[in-house]
Amino acid sequence: MAKLNKEQFEAMLIERHGKSVHEKLKSAIIGIAGLGGLGSNVAFSLARIGIGKLVIADFDSVEPSNLNRQQYFIEQLGTKKTAALTENLLKINPYLKIEGHSLKLTAGNIPEIFADCSIITECFDKADQKQMLVETVLNKMNDVITVAVSGLGGYGRSNEIQTRKISDRLILVGDGKSGLESGFSLMAPRVAIAAGHQANAIVELILES
Amino acid sequence: MAVLKINGEDKIFENAVPSTLKALLELLKVDEATVVAEVNGQIIPRNSFYNTILKDGHKIELIRFVGGG
Predict the structure, then answer these.
(1) Measured torsion, CA atoms of residues A156, A202, A172, A116, in degrees rounded to the nearest 10
(2) CA atoms within 13 A on the CB side of A26
(3) Residues of A in Cβ contact (< 8 Å) with B34
(4) Pick the CATH number of B2-63 from 3.10.250.10, 3.40.50.1820, 3.30.300.30, 3.10.20.30
(5) Contact residues, chain A, for B40 at CB < 8 Å
(6) Domain range annotation of chain A
(7) pLDDT above 90: residue A126
(8) Residue A20 in contact with residue A66, Cβ under 8 Å?
(9) Which of B18, B19, B24, B62 lies closest to B44, judged by CA?
(10) What's the gap in Å between the CA of B15 and the closest CA on chain A?
(11) Nearest to A95 by CA among A28, A160, A2
């Protein structure tokens, strides 16, 4: 399948990014909590630029309602998201290391599952799950940074989606208000904007730390 | 008169500040299940909102989450 061997693939990335940037991206281990519209898009970006390893977690399988914004295909309906996303990511970057966990993340298992990660990105759908992940990382995982999202529903208003540094260990993306609770639906373009903010914040953290 | 600094802005209370973090969130009509809270720089776990005592002059950061991902 691979028409670029590992050395050729790395040479392509080095040509694009420069050697020192490439080495930093390659040594990074990033956690992705939730593999929906945010998580699948963040993963695609990070795979393309040559992040070394992703730890991905979600208990769900691919459903028809996911296809309007998530990076899966019709033929993957019913497949576990961890398996489907792994398959898709390896088509982009066959040399990416991926550790998949098909389970429900809890305050109890998050520190163990993401133990090797320097950054964990919050990509859940439900507000209380977002709260749970951020609280758990900030309270139980010293030195780990989390990049979370609040408010990405609807369409238009692209420039209202912002990246804000709340503290040294919390970056918050979103408009802070356009939630499912307020009747907003989720659509590929605005979800991808927020996911792009997340992935871009992660790259900045890796390269400037 | 008493004051809490909430997300960088002074909120003034006529008599006393709400007694606990939980009471403050109820007053603000914020669902505690969707908030990460910091009091004077310390993250407060959600299950301790009810016994986190607030006093005049405390600094509070409330990070609210809405659904969608």
Answers:
(1) 140
(2) 15
(3) 127-128, 130-131
(4) 3.10.20.30
(5) none
(6) 16-207
(7) yes
(8) no
(9) B62
(10) 31
(11) A2
CB contact under 8 A, A127 and B66: yes
Are the beta carbons of A123 and B43 separated by less than 8 Å? no
The answer to whether A37 contacts B67, with C-beta atoms less than 8 Å apart, is no
Residue A33's DSSP bridge partners are A57, A122
- Nearby residues of A129 by Cβ (< 8 Å), 6 or more positions away: A34, A105
When scoring B21, B44, B48, B63 by the number of chain A Cβ atoms within 10 A, the one with the most, hence best to mutate, is B63
Could you tell me which chain B residue has the CA closest to the CA of A170?
Answer: B63
Tell me the CATH number for domain A16-207.
3.40.50.720
Estimate to the nearest angstrom the gap between the alpha carbon of A171 and the chain centroid.
13
State the nearest Cα–Cα gap between A108 and chain B, in angstroms.
14
Q: pLDDT at position A5, please?
A: 95
Give whole-number Cα distances, A147 to A59, A83, A172, in Å.
Answer: 20, 24, 6
Helical packing angle, A37-48 and A81-92, nearest 10° = 30
- Locate the chain A residue with the closest alpha carbon to B37: A135
Mutation site for A-interface testing, chosen from B36, B39, B59 by largest number of A Cβ within 10 Å: B36
Length of chain B: 69
Q: Does residue A2 carry a pLDDT above 80?
A: no
pTM above 0.80, yes or no: yes
pLDDT in tens, B23-45: 999 999 999 999 999 999 999 99
ipTM associated with this complex: 0.92
* Nearest neighbour of B46 by CB, restricted to A135, A148, A184: A135
- Report the candidate in A128, A161, A127, A165 with the shortest Cα–Cα distance to residue A146: A165
